[in-house]
Design brief:
This protein is an alpha+beta fold. Helix content is 33%, strand content 26%. Residues 14-134 form the Transposase IS200-like domain.
Length: 138
Amino acid sequence: MPEYGNIRTGRHCAFALHAHLVFVTKYRHKVFRDVHLRRMEEIMRAVCEDFETELVEFNGENNHVHLLVNFPPKVAISKLVNSLKGVSSRRLRQEFPDLVRHYWHAQRLWSGSYFAGSAGGAPLSIVRQYIEQQNRPS
């Protein structure tokens, strides 16, 4: 089995769980500038810390952001995503009133949907092969 880097441990487990998350703005409006993205990264890092999750990488463009998070098995991705989107939307709209004009009728910065994909570790074909090759007890 390929080696995993940065294995974290909990009380009863060892884990290396990473997810690639993508959030898009409501109506795909092109609203973010560099100043927004820099502040959003700070906000999202703080939310991740609250969830005992590490924001490994963050980047974005004018209408979407990408996050790579390392999370413990006790964290439900859907709850993490709801918190990341909710807190960042609220804080950014408070700190940057210019964003509000894009959302005058719906007080939401983000689209209701998101992308979450597992990342890191071995490709599924390698894991499948490794499991198939295990010796079965006689």
